[in-house]
Write a structure and sequence with these properties.
444 residues, alpha/beta, 13 helices, 16 strands, 31% helix
């Protein structure tokens, strides 16, 4: 159905999301190695300092805008306000301030910030430093999570370790070594471990390598078994069952990507299922918590109704959240609400994250942005040059507006993930326009 291109006034009530009912032994982790002698903190590289400082500045402006928009109580007289919308012309950041290969957003606008490294490792490093500037100890994470660049399932599932109270951002590693961007980020973040992580400084998932000098907990597995092992680790660290499970398609990464953002925001583990088969590791993980509700992410073409019914025989409640393609699927998840499950974002005043559906590691790399700052769902584009009509319509539905005073309005902010080969400058500019605050009613 065509979407009317009109700004939505922040004062209008939010539309109610719908829900779609659908009838329907873990691998042991290795014991932590004896704790190595505490590493001497290295000086933070100049490039990393620049990234962290500039990201921190961006966060200050975003948070200040949101606090200003939510601060009015409607009482008292209002100061005179401009009647026209301020321009939101994109402004290019000087490349000399921070190198593009380390993920600094070389192109930012009034309503968007790009994090686009030359590879997933540099993008993840930049996101981690945006979340934890690490200029003082209170800004450092207790631990980080290292995932293998060759296993997107492990990466998406590991996003759950970013959720409170653990707060362990995802960094990209490899089976054969640690990428330079990841090593530099680790030096800057300097995780020290604490009671929340049981002293562990880094969780290494599957084949992911970890640098020496860290107290590392290796989490075995890989693929569907790796996700189950991560779920077990989450239970061990938090000492209890999760509120919900998300089952994502094991063979359809684009449909699974939005689960990473929700896992980081909620602490709900991500498990995987095939189109026509429920893996043994997933079934065993569900059987450990039969009273925990399960939400299947993706259409029946990715996870069949037979699999959903099989899940229903293990747990008391299972429902499906889906769209017919990855773009629509991500929007459906962003809109969805069922009790305390789901983003339920159907109105202005939120953060969003946009990535290309062809890059599943970007979902894990960006997941800390959904658990900090402007907390928002992951949305997808399937083109580097053209914004999908469904995504444009959704952003129009959530477009913020004001009637008299823009300083008392709600604001949207969008993180754009990836370089220009993933999302072009022109597409980012269109996203900026859709996120911009607009005047509603009265004189133009």
């Amino acid at each position: 159905m065509a979407v009317e291109e009109r700004p939505i006034n922040a004062d209008l009530p939010a539309s109610k999301p719908g829900e779609k009912p659908d009838g329907q032994a873990l691998p042991a982790t290795k014991a932590p190695a004896p704790r190595a002698a505490k590493r001497r903190r290295k000086p933070i590289p100049t490039a990393i300092k620049a990234i962290a400082g500039l990201f921190l500045l961006a966060f200050v402006f975003i948070v200040a805008a949101n606090l200003g928009g939510r601060g009015g109580d409607g009482g008292g007289s209002e100061a005179p306000a401009p009647v026209s919308e301020a321009p939101s012309t994109p402004a290019e950041t000087p490349a000399s301030q921070a190198p593009e290969e380390l993920g600094y957003p070389a192109f930012a606008t009034a309503n968007t910030t790009r994090v686009g490294g030359s590879d997933p490792a540099s993008t993840a490093a930049a996101v981690a430093l945006a979340t934890y500037p690490s200029t003082k100890s209170s800004q450092q994470p207790a631990a980080v999570t290292l995932v293998d660049a060759g296993d997107w399932r492990d990466a998406i599932a590991a996003s759950v370790l970013m959720a409170a109270p653990l707060g362990a951002p995802v960094l990209i590693s490899e089976a054969g070594g640690v990428p330079e961007a990841t090593a530099q980020a680790l030096d800057a973040l300097d995780p020290e471990g604490d009671k929340r992580t049981k002293g562990v400084q880094a969780f290494a998932i599957g084949a992911a390598s970890a640098p020496s000098g860290l107290d590392v907990k290796q989490v075995g597995g890989g693929g569907t078994a790796g996700a189950a092992a991560i779920s077990e680790l989450r239970d061990e660290l938090l000492g209890g069952a999760p509120q919900h499970f998300v089952i994502a398609p094991a063979a359809e990464p684009a449909f699974a990507m939005p689960a990473a953002a929700w896992a980081a925001r909620s602490g709900d583990p991500v498990l995987f299922a095939g189109e026509d088969k429920l893996p043994t590791a997933t079934a065993k993980a569900l059987a450990r918590h039969p009273k925990t509700p399960v939400y299947v992410l993706g259409p029946s073409s990715a996870i069949s109704s037979d699999v959903v019914r099989e899940i229903g025989k293990i747990v008391a409640r299972v429902r499906r959240v889906s769209g017919e393609d990855p773009v629509a699927n991500a929007i459906a998840f962003a809109r969805y609400a069922d009790g305390d499950f789901g983003w339920n974002i159907n109105d202005p005043g939120h953060g969003f994250v946009v990535a290309n559906s062809a890059e599943p590691l970007a979902a894990a790399a960006a997941s800390p942005l959904s658990a900090s700052g402007t907390w928002g769902p992951l949305l997808l584009t399937d083109s580097a040059d053209t914004l999908p009509a469904a995504l444009r319509g959704y952003l129009l539905d959530a477009k913020p507006g004001y009637t008299t005073d823009p300083t008392r309005a709600f604001y949207n902010h969008v993180w754009v993930i990836g370089d220009q080969e993933a999302i072009s400058m022109s597409e980012q500019a269109e996203i900026d326009e859709l996120a911009a605050l607009a005047k509603v009613g009265g004189e133009p």
